[in-house]
Amino acid sequence: MICTTIQNKTYEEILSILDDPFVEMAEIRLDLNNLSDEEIKDLFGSSEKPLIATYRIAPQPDIKALNQQWEKALRKMSQAVEAGARFVDVDLGAPVNISKYFQKLCHKTGTELIRSYHDYEKTPDLEYLQQIKQRCFRYGADVAKIVTTAQTEEDNEIIKRLYDQEQSRLVAFAMGAIGQQTRIDCLKQGAPFTYAAYDEPAAEGQLPIVEMHEKVYGDFLGLYRADFKIPASKSFAQRAIIAAALAEGTSHLSNYTPCDDSESAVRVARSLGAKVARKGSALTIEGLGPIKNKLTVERINAGESGILARLMIPILAQVAQCPVSIEGRGTLLKRPLAAASDIMAAFGVILRNEAEYEGREIHVPLAVKGELIAGTADLPGKPGSQLVSGVLMALPLNPKNSKVYVGEPKSIPYMFITLDVLRKFGIKAGAQLEGNADMLAQQDWSYCTGINFTIDGGQSYKAADLTLEGDWSAAANFLVGGSLFGSVELRGLDTSSLQADISILDVLVEAGAAVAYDEDTVCVKKGPLEAFDFDLSQAPDIFPIVSLLAAFCQGTSTIAGVGRLRGKETDRAAAIVEMLTKMGVSASIEGDILSVEGETLASRILNGRLLKGGNYTAHSDHRMAMVLRIASIAADSPIVIDDTACVAKSFPEFFEQF
Fold first, then answer.
1. Rounded distance between C-alpha atoms, residue 654 and residue 648, angstroms
2. Delimiting residues of CATH 3.65.10.10 domain(s) in the chain
3. Which terminus of the chain, N or C, has less C-beta within 10 A?
4. What pTM was computed for the model?
């Protein structure tokens, strides 16, 4: 990243500079820009680009004048931090009370603290500068900034050696003409950012932003888009289509975008006897309800959709004359329906394989035998949410009440998507989460140990009109692309969505991207990225694109939830490691954790370590195909994907948007 130093400008001029596409992030010199208190608050509170609040104390004639300057610096920098500054730069020589104040304030607000040291005359020896670096971190630094003055090439070598033990959290370079190259070399060593001048340099040797951009990025184009179109969430669409098919009356679903999985749901709805018509992006579904007699359905075809197959198992056991066959195609035929037999046995339903498979695991094609018996059941949550969602959709149609306990639940958000769809179609069901104090304090699904569902029997689905949400799993690919390579703005996303994959916003913030959003628009821009630790057990679909994000975050990132990847379109965990390794990224799996060694984009470009191009396999997995396309933006040669058609499963127009 290149941070543009802005000085001696008015508020309006600063806003204009921040609109310049060459400006990725900016240092606002509060000592040199004459900004009012309100202008400081507005500037740091509204900027979509990362800003550093800096106030340098000039030499003063006496202690009184010096204290007045520090008081002014304290006030202005505090305003910036409280308004939302990404960084605040506090000189290592600041008075103790000011140093402690900003350590506490930054901890409270989440602003990252830069502790900076400057020597305007020379470059001290390495041992001394290492002690300075240690002091920076001892006194609260998230980032240590060490700037000296180079008089010889040996001084530049001293600066370079500072990176032997610390890379991602150190910005070290030398002022002066001799030290100019160190301003670029620090990025090669892993510095999160360096500095450039917008017009007048802040110090000798500081390069203009356009020249610095050319030296760092060369002909790298990046990704700057605001016109990507996001498809409807197939998680919502499939549930809503089946609910509408079961409902009494005619439902209207708007913002529908066809993909293989959603179209499979339409075909299943028609197999049940519902009438479905599509005009543009609107579906009209004339439902079957109220269902008083068992439906005569010999077979349905779930296509390649695992969730559709799992939803329909309990629904067919409730509404159809069994046995009923569930068929499919492609990768679905190879994927075991984990624990499906045991879960359905709890409701008196027997599942039988209709093809030859070794072991007890159920696969499609399968036969559903026996009527759904309501009552009390304890279900395992580790196999996932999809079959549980089917149970939640089926039990309200049973005459009797039910209580279902799900232990150690996974993909919890998807169960609540199901409850949300049920509510929209007039079905009532209760849910109570179990967990420790951390679950309540942090509002974090991962601390949930169990869910108690209560479902009244004898209910009927009622027709509904609703707008299908945009798909956060598809959006995640573009958002990560923007965070790595430029900026992306997406519209049509519900930022209060229950979709698990909305957690991509939390991942991006954790990694250091610049994220801004309102009710239906999300904007992500490049930021100084650093290694992160995140648990994706509840959102396994964004695992591939998050692993690519980690490849560009300096340091070692860890991503938990690998166990959730085994039963996808491929062994997605193995596919991710294979892909990253072939690209030249160190990645490994230990237990449930994927570890990725990352390096910033600037470092990769300057060191000639862009991702390796070549021929890659998507393993017939739509999510792997998408991440390969995003990765190709930063590859040293074209990435050729063996199967691009597989994206039709969820996002047929994905490749057309590039």
1. 8
2. 234-467, 472-657
3. C
4. 0.92
